[in-house]
Write a structure and sequence with these properties.
With 361 residues, the chain is α+β, with helices and mostly antiparallel strands. It is built from 6 helices and 21 strands. The relative contact order is 0.21.
């Protein structure tokens, strides 16, 4: 890619203390991504059936252990970040790290212009109740955004489902501005989005710059009553379990830390017992949406500004195990910018329980 195609964003900042705190310069391409990758990355919505196989029972156990470590608060040794990272050239110390690398390798396999010394997989897990939401958010280098006001996003975001339960992932073709808070935080109309329901072993991939969430309001309707399918939403002791990987190329996020070695003894999945083979790409149904369809509203805070996502979706078309590409007619999906508020920090994948939703109403 020529220099003429580069963005004007050239930002110097101090790296984290563990990286010698030297000044570096970030150069972004015309799409707002770290420069250098010229081709070979598929940014389209992709869904693969049964992409991950093997000892998923033990993998689910390990996902719970990882999630419990993430959930620790007030313990500085383990609460410095919400995610973990393994570099493209690093050797995995556990099967969860190996899985993250396998997913990275699959999506970066045809890439050209990648510096493997500055690339890798950011990974984490979600183990939540079936009726919980995951709030709307952009994945990014949160430390850089907080310290320097610049949004650097992963090239790709991925979700691997390890259960059949819970809300679908909802990804919208909507990007945050490179300079945090500019242009009303990216407010505007949305043309396309994908709804992907959890199905054990399925794997979703999307452009890492896009806004995404997992709203329980998009759970399928009961065909007889036309109301939310409570039998699915409230399966006894059921959990929505997912393994998340962001693919970072030519840029190491500030929070790029390995999983704590002191906690490795809590993980049980044997090395090599999980395989990644995204060979069968799932067909994606296409549906048009208009303002007469059911309304979904989700609020969140972006760059200290209240935002509201309003999307009109024909809920009767939402079915278990399906992936649906939504095309919005004029005005059928919009991100609206509200007032500025005080905000301490931004959390990745904020989980909202149904009890919290009830108290907010």
């Amino acid at each position: 890619m020529s220099n003429s195609e580069d963005s004007d964003i050239r930002n110097s900042f101090s790296e984290s203390p563990g990286m010698n705190a030297q000044q570096i310069e970030i150069v972004l391409d015309a799409e707002g991504r770290p420069r250098g990758v010229t081709e070979g990355i598929n940014y389209d919505f992709q869904v693969y059936q049964k992409a991950v196989k093997g000892n998923l029972e033990l993998l689910r156990h390990d996902c719970e252990q990882v999630f419990n470590v993430r959930a620790v608060r007030g313990d500085e040794e383990y609460s410095s970040g919400e995610t973990y990272f393994i570099g493209a050239k690093e050797q995995p110390a556990a099967e969860v790290e190996r899985l993250a690398k396998l997913i990275f390798d699959f999506h970066a396999r045809n890439s050209i212009g990648v510096d493997l010394n500055k690339s890798g997989a950011e990974w984490w897990t979600q183990v939540i109740d079936a009726d919980d939401d995951i709030g709307a958010h952009f994945d990014r280098d949160y430390t850089l955004e907080e310290d320097e006001g610049v949004n650097i996003h992963p090239h790709l975001g991925t979700v691997t489902y390890l259960s059949d339960t819970g809300a679908p992932t909802f990804v919208l073709e909507l990007k945050a501005p490179t300079i945090s808070g500019q242009d009303l935080c990216g407010a505007g109309f949305v043309e396309k989005a994908i709804v992907s329901f959890p199905k054990e072993g399925n794997h979703l991939c999307f452009d890492g710059r896009f806004l995404h969430c997992a709203p329980a309001d998009l759970l399928p309707l009961d065909e007889e009553t036309g109301q939310p399918d409570e039998s699915r939403k409230r399966k006894s002791e059921s959990k929505r379990i997912s393994f998340l990987v962001n693919v970072w190329l030519n840029y190491l996020p500030s929070h790029a830390d390995r999983f704590p070695s002191e906690r490795l003894n809590q993980l049980k999945t044997p090395s090599g017992s999980v395989t990644v083979n995204p060979a069968q790409e799932m067909s994606i149904e296409r549906v048009s949406c208009c303002i007469q369809d059911s309304e979904l509203r989700m609020g969140f805070v972006e760059a200290s500004r209240r935002m509201e996502l309003v999307a009109h979706v024909p809920k009767p078309v939402l079915k278990d195990s399906k992936s649906i590409l939504l095309s919005f007619e004029d005005g059928a999906c919009e991100l609206k910018a509200g007032e500025l508020v005080e905000q301490e920090s931004s959390e990745q994948d904020s989980v909202i329980s149904e009890e919290e939703e009830d108290s907010d109403r």
